[in-house]
């Protein structure tokens, strides 16, 4: 009997269901010939579910999701400004809750400018790097508060929490990643000259771990300077390791310069496998274009490649990457936009031919 | 007798003295015909001073500087990695200390892509916006700490402090700025879906103040999305208002897309004039190219234009801006690099011809 992989699928809101449908098609096609099968459970979560039931993510949802081997997520979030969602904060209550509860301490976001893909940069050069963003600490911990709210004396604080335990494990992961890549270069991005306590912790841990990886070269950039290099010389980057908030900012910029968030995939990873890892496109739910079959499912499909690689199905992962790359090159030649399902179908055809 | 303006000049380290020399030449030339004169006091501050005396900024320095009408600063900071500077943190002890002590709550950073200036963007469009960055709050307050430092149980926190008082005054300034510009558009940039307490404060205050400026249109972007627009459609921005850290990141990116930090000027402003405002190029001290007369003094010279405008010398400010713009257009035609002083001289010639 072939191994059965339990997959939790969270299509979410907006374009989420459309892109996830293509991603699942590709997942099945890519593994059809393998000695493995997927058992998908679909979870209805997101703004739509909240508006229907008032629930964002119940304990039962969380327990059920946690019992799977991996998670594929489309996108969550309602129409911006929808008054019924003002106090819901689907992002915190669902997306971040999953990342934190399932200890996704590595947020892996590759940036590759595929051949033929237009970049907003005049001379992007060879863009091929990966951001290892910390996923369970920093200013994302939800450790904020306010006093005298709504008065002229209001004080609102946000606390960034950083631990040696949390920083070291993600830094080690980043060094491993760097060691497995041809250039073996790691850049720490932080703001050590201002955030002196957190910055010092990150810097000391990177220096200490670096001693164990003598074949990896290491440098450091302040986050502000890193944004300059991302537009002036992105090919200088190989692996970036950074905190949760800087990683959030840098990966959107990285996606923009390498063809847009329509192509940017990500993995929220618990490397030890104590909890299922979650794979999702970097883009949001884009309610304005939802249901029209115009969303690009490529980012979701590339997230499937990351999912397969994480599960150790490296051949299938490579097949998906190759099919997507070929499709991206072909679409540049094509010149006309295709529907969401046409992109998925074209990639499935490449996988099954 | 003509009014005497007391100017504190802090050339600083690296290329600071070179670019400040040109900026002062231009300041004098631009105001030569006016009924005003400048009395400059030069302060030796920065890494060089620290290495000589062990002082970063003494109380006497601060008191002396505070007694001036305005401050012109070049750049501070020693050679990166210099072991003698490891514990000095010239940035915090000098630059940020001045901004905080002199209540520079507005950090004003215009981004203009001048005609003929190359941008890393393939199609930048009409880049002409200004970032109003808060300067005395946020994660810059120095409110961090660590326990069990150096152990595997270390916890390092950084606190972002945001007050209604502090946010409202900078938001008002930004609305005033927006009202004085043709497009009258203001974009709040924050990360309200994650930093919910600080984000809520910023959002409520922007909404409240907006009611007093019905002719200004307002929108909101998460900081990650803002970086995407800065490379994909920078002409959508008119005035951006944001917190200290997001402003730091966005203004380096903004400088990069509009010709580089060699052209980016900034003002650290105390609008009420209780303390002297400080004008400085956005770039750093660049010790690697110091003393070679290759640094571009344009950012320092444009900072002089901001200084003159702040002092109410609007005609002189306009003359400097016009001379710099003409020089930038001319240099594109020239095609060969000029020395630091040649750029200053060329701009002086335009002002005095
Ligand atoms: C939706 C939001 C909470 C999220 C984040 O800030 O991490 C998103 O921007 C991302 O990068 O996945
Ligand atoms: C030198 C550093 C402390 C400073 C900052 O972060 O504000 C600089 O980057 C700037 O933008 O002026």
TrEMBL record, chains A, B:
EC number in record: 1.1.1.85
Localization per record: Cytoplasm
InterPro entries registered for this protein in UniProt: ICDH/IPMDH, IsoCit/isopropylmalate_DH_CS, IsoPropMal-DH-like_dom, LeuB_actb
Record-marked site positions (Important for catalysis): 140, 191
Residues that bind NAD(+): 284-296
Segments forming domain Isopropylmalate dehydrogenase-like: 6-347
One Pfam family in the UniProt entry: Iso_dh
Annotated pathway: Amino-acid biosynthesis; L-leucine biosynthesis; L-leucine from 3-methyl-2-oxobutanoate: step 3/4
Major subcellular site: cytoplasm
Keywords recorded for this protein, A-Z: Amino-acid biosynthesis, Branched-chain amino acid biosynthesis, Cytoplasm, Leucine biosynthesis, Magnesium, Manganese, Metal-binding, NAD, Oxidoreductase
Gene Ontology MF terms in the entry: 3-isopropylmalate dehydrogenase activity
Record flagged with keyword Magnesium: yes
Catalytic activity: (2R,3S)-3-isopropylmalate + NAD(+) = 4-methyl-2-oxopentanoate + CO2 + NADH
Record-listed Mg(2+) binding positions: 224, 248, 252
Cofactor, free-text remark: Binds 1 Mg(2+) or Mn(2+) ion per subunit.
Keyword Methyltransferase assigned: no
Residues binding substrate: 99, 109, 133, 224
Coiled coil residues, start to end: none
Assembly description: Homodimer.
Function of the molecule: Catalyzes the oxidation of 3-carboxy-2-hydroxy-4-methylpentanoate (3-isopropylmalate) to 3-carboxy-4-methyl-2-oxopentanoate. The product decarboxylates to 4-methyl-2 oxopentanoate.
UniProt xrefs under NCBIfam families: PRK03437.1 (NF002898)
Classification via HAMAP family: LeuB_type2
Family: Belongs to the isocitrate and isopropylmalate dehydrogenases family. LeuB type 2 subfamily.
Entry protein name: 3-isopropylmalate dehydrogenase
Species: Cryobacterium breve
Gene (name only): leuB
């Amino acid at each position: 009997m072939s191994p059965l992989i339990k997959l939790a699928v969270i299509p979410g809101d907006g374009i989420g269901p459309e892109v996830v449908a293509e991603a699942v098609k590709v997942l099945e096609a890519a593994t059809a010939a393998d000695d493995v099968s997927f058992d998908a459970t679909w979870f209805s979560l997101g703004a739509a579910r909240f508006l229907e039931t008032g629930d964002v993510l119940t304990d039962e949802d969380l327990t059920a999701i946690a019992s799977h081997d991996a998670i594929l997520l489309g996108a969550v979030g309602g129409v911006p400004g929808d008054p019924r969602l003002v106090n819901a904060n689907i992002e915190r209550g669902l997306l971040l809750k999953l990342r934190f509860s399932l200890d996704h301490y590595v947020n892996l976001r590759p940036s590759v400018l595929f051949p033929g893909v237009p970049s907003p940069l005049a001379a992007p050069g060879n863009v091929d790097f990966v951001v290892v963003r910390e996923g369970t600490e920093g200013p994302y911990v939800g450790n904020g508060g306010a006093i005298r709210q709504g008065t002229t004396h209001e004080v609102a604080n946000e606390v960034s929490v950083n631990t040696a335990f949390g920083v070291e494990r993600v830094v080690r992961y980043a060094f491993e990643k760097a060691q497995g890549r041809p250039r073996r270069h790691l850049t720490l991005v932080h703001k050590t000259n201002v955030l002196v306590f957190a910055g010092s912790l990150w810097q000391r841990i990177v220096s200490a771990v670096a001693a164990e990886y003598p074949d990896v070269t290491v440098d450091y950039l302040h986050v502000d300077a890193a944004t300059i290099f991302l537009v002036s010389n992105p090919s200088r980057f190989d692996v970036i390791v950074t905190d949760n908030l800087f990683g959030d900012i840098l990966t959107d910029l990285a996606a923009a310069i390498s063809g847009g968030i329509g192509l940017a995939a990500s993995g929220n990873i618990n490397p030890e496998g104590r909890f299922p890892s979650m794979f999702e496109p970097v883009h949001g739910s884009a309610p304005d274009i939802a249901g029209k079959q115009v969303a690009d499912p490529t980012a979701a499909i590339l997230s499937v490649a990351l999912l397969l690689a994480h599960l150790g199905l490296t051949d299938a992962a490579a097949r998906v990457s190759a099919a997507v790359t070929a499709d991206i090159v072909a679409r540049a030649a094509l010149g006309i936009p295709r529907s969401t399902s046409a992109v998925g179908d074209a990639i499935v055809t490449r996988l099954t031919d």
